[in-house]
Design the sequence.
């Protein structure tokens, strides 16, 4: 989440001179500092290891699962199945999220700010470990080639604040006007978000390639 | 030689192809580009007018605009699910402020100006080629209508949209200058409406089309409102600052007289319009578009395209008619038991149904206690309380596939489908209501009275969570079959904007303000027409039974000898409660602070039935809504010029 920041002046007693208004708006940059992919193959004797990954550093991620428009993090009494967040209580004053109920109903004020995360991540898309059996051994068995391999798709995500908090994939899966209880305004409909969409799956494949 | 020959043949063939010409010329009719020339055709004028009728749906029936029309007045406060949002800020009872970024009146600004420009285009181009004056008068009505809404809401607004005053804007100018209130009235609202009254037909061109009677209503209302503005009894500032003198040289009294004359003239020459015989009939879903209704933002259940909104599920926005959801509480959480309450097995006995007394609950707004003990103090002679609210919620579990023939409700008594599951009592009973929910777990903290099978809530137990629903705006569909229908669609009923009955109120208010009256049409006479009709019953909503009764004599007998502005305002609230008139009525008469500064209601939690009193901080600057931030952001002007553009108090 990002916090609403008051940018105005203060009275001598420390109280703000005005309410939060349009002049406190800031233009945020959604773009990452850098992003890229990696593809590596390491082989030793009969073994080979292939890794394909993608990474991104910086930028903003908009998750409507955590923002108020998804109706899953309203911090109110009415919504039953909310996402689990570290919210403020008198005993838990250092919490990341504000106190429930204090900010209102289904559309809490500034509730969209709860949905912003640092978009950084490194995600391994596929990882394959294979072993090619020595052809001399195969000749005796009447085979030309024999390869045994193990592939994991989407095995893990690293360096992602969003993944760390939610356990979910930090890659976006929706447009702004999709997959949230209240779609973002039409001006924001092409913004990429994480909404209530099917997540990318993690697959494990064990395979044998055999040629006679 | 042979080679050359072939080459020549090839060249000849190519040349033949190139020189072949089309015999028909493509007659291009581009559909993607509209130019102002289109308004010079009759078809273009019809297209523009259709757009003007359609634009009403983006304002009237929109729940957020509706919020700005009611919350913060004596008709509504924020409801249990409206906390923290604009529903709470518009109530002015918390420290939350109405800001240019979060003002629900902005909806009007954004939708009125594009429509005004269309009207400018129609008026200017259609006049040039001599299209029927009656058609152009429709555009004049809508231009005046929008300017009248704007000037009441924001103060002075720009007449020049970029190409000159009241001209169709074809420039890309990104600056704007606001005119003053008297300029808006005297340059556009009055001239347009006078011409519209003159040129419009008595019967609409189409069902719901604008008429002479409608234009008369708005002309008289504009005269009345401007008269109040000139008089300014409570010294409320206007913006942009200007003297309270009329450029046309008249005084407030002259305008009150004009308001009275135009309104009574329209009453005496009603054309096809007349009051319905009972108040119940005015708002009955099956009687929509009746002879009392002058203008409405129309919808239909037969076509999603023409409805402008989904027929199955609406998200709440755009052209959805979803205002009524705001004043609908979550009756769907009421529980009865399939078994004796000694070992309960609970089930929701009143399910979400597309019916006029039920509908989709959003609980964003709630009526304070004063609505029930002051405005609608008379619930027996006056049919308007029963014709406004849903006060009995009836079992419909059979339509939702729950097969139990009967359920156990309060006091372990059996209830059957169609029986009242809960009732809002007209009066506080002498026996105290048991709100404990210790045995009869109603799910919503409802009460029990000895001997009654239905749960009850007394008038003093009405809360931000549990309150009578708004029957008059309730959903009406004919395609439910035997089931619950499509309760999550927005209402497919028209949202009523103007009624014939209001002419009586305008004339009466003008008379109270000193207009010379005609025989038989004093303020009291006019109000009594409305009150006499309100005394006539033919149906009793709470009991769901026919009730033919004429209490007109008692209603008239109860009318005070002298009518004052406060009485007219109270009577207006009885007649038009929940229809979005209130903020404008209180702002016109400058009675907002006097009539709405405090209210009483119980809390937003389940089982809260202890009334609390709340105070509103209504300041003079609140009498104008803020110019929307989006307008300021889009203008290419300096920060100082933008600050000057904004209404005072909202920076």
Sequence:
């Amino acid at each position: 989440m990002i916090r609403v920041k008051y940018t105005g002046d203060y009275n001598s007693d420390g109280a703000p001179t005005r309410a939060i208004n349009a002049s406190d708006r800031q233009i945020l940059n959604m773009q990452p500092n850098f992003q890229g992919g990696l593809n590596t193959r390491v082989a030793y004797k009969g073994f080979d290891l292939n890794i394909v990954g993608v990474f991104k550093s910086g930028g903003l991620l908009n998750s409507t699962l955590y923002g108020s428009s998804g109706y899953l993090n309203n911090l109110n009494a009415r919504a039953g199945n909310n996402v689990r967040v570290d919210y403020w209580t008198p005993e838990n004053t250092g919490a990341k999220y504000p106190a429930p109920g204090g900010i209102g109903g289904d559309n809490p004020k500034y509730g969209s700010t709860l949905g912003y995360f640092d978009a950084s991540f490194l995600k391994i898309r596929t990882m394959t470990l294979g072993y090619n059996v020595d052809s001399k051994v195969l000749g005796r068995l009447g085979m030309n080639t024999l390869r045994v391999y193990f592939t994991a798709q989407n095995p893990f995500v690293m360096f992602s604040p969003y993944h760390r908090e939610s356990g979910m994939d930090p890659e976006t899966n929706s447009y702004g006007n999709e997959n949230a209880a209240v779609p973002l305004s039409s001006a924001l409909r092409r913004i990429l978000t994480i909404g209530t969409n099917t997540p990318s799956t993690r697959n494990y494949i064990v395979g044998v390639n055999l040629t006679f | 030689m042979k080679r050359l020959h072939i080459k020549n043949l090839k060249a000849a063939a190519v040349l033949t192809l190139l020189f072949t010409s089309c015999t028909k010329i493509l007659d291009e009719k581009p559909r993607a580009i509209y130019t102002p020339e289109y308004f010079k055709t009759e078809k273009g004028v019809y297209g523009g007018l259709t757009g003007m009728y359609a634009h009403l749906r983006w304002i009237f029936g929109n729940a957020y605009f509706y919020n700005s029309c009611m919350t913060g007045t004596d008709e509504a406060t924020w409801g249990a699910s409206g906390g923290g949002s604009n529903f709470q800020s518009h109530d002015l009872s918390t420290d939350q402020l109405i800001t240019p970024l979060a003002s629900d009146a902005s909806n009007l600004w954004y939708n009125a100006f594009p429509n005004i420009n269309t009207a400018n285009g129609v008026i200017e181009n259609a006049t040039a080629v001599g299209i029927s004056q009656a058609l152009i008068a429709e555009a004049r009505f809508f231009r005046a209508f929008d300017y009248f809404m704007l000037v009441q809401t924001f103060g002075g607004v720009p007449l020049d949209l970029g190409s000159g005053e009241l001209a169709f804007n074809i420039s890309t100018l990104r600056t704007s200058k606001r005119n003053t209130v008297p300029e808006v009235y005297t340059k556009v609202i009055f001239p347009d409406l006078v011409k519209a009254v003159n040129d419009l037909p008595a019967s609409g061109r189409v069902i719901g089309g604008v008429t002479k009677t409608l234009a008369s209503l708005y002309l008289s209302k504009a005269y009345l409102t401007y008269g109040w503005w000139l008089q300014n009894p409570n010294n409320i500032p206007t913006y942009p600052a200007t003297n309270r003198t009329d450029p046309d040289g008249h005084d407030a009294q002259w305008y009150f007289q004009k308001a009275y004359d135009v309104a009574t003239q329209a009453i005496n020459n009603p054309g096809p319009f007349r009051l319905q015989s009972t108040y119940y009939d005015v708002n009955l879903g099956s009687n929509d578009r009746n002879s009392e209704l002058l203008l409405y933002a129309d919808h239909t259940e037969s076509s999603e395209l023409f409805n402008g909104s989904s027929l199955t599920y609406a998200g709440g926005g755009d052209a959805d008619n979803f205002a009524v959801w705001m004043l609908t509480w979550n009756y769907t959480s009421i529980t009865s038991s399939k078994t004796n309450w000694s070992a309960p097995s609970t089930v929701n006995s009143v399910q979400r149904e597309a019916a006029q007394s039920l509908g989709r609950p959003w609980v964003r707004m709630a009526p304070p206690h004063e609505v029930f003990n002051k405005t609608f103090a008379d619930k027996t002679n006056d049919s308007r309380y029963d014709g406004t609210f849903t006060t009995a919620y009836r079992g419909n579990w059979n339509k939702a596939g729950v097969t139990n023939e009967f359920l156990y409700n309060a006091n372990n008594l059996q209830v059957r489908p169609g029986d009242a599951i809960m009732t809002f009592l007209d009066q506080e009973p002498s026996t105290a209501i048991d709100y404990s929910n210790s045995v009869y777990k109603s799910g919503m903290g409802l009460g029990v009275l000895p001997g009654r099978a239905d749960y009850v809530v007394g008038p003093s137990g009405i809360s931000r969570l549990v309150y009578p629903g708004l029957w008059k705006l309730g959903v009406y569909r004919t395609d439910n079959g035997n089931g619950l229908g499509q309760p999550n669609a927005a209402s497919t009923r028209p949202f009523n904007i103007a009624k014939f009955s209001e002419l009586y109120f305008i004339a009466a208010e003008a008379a109270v303000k000193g207009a010379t009256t005609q025989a038989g049409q004093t303020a009291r006479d006019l109000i009594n027409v409305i009150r006499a009709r309100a005394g006539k019953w033919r149906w009793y909503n709470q009991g769901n039974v026919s009730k033919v009764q004429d209490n007109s004599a008692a209603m008239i007998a109860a009318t005070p000898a002298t009518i004052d502005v406060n009485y007219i305002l109270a009577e207006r609230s009885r007649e038009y409660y929940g229809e979005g008139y209130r903020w404008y009525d209180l702002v016109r008469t400058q009675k907002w602070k006097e009539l709405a500064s405090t209210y009483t209601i119980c809390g937003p939690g389940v089982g809260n039935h202890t009334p609390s009193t709340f105070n509103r901080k209504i300041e003079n600057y609140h009498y104008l809504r803020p110019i929307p931030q989006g307008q300021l952001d889009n203008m290419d002007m300096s920060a100082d010029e933008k600050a000057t553009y904004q209404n005072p108090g909202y920076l």
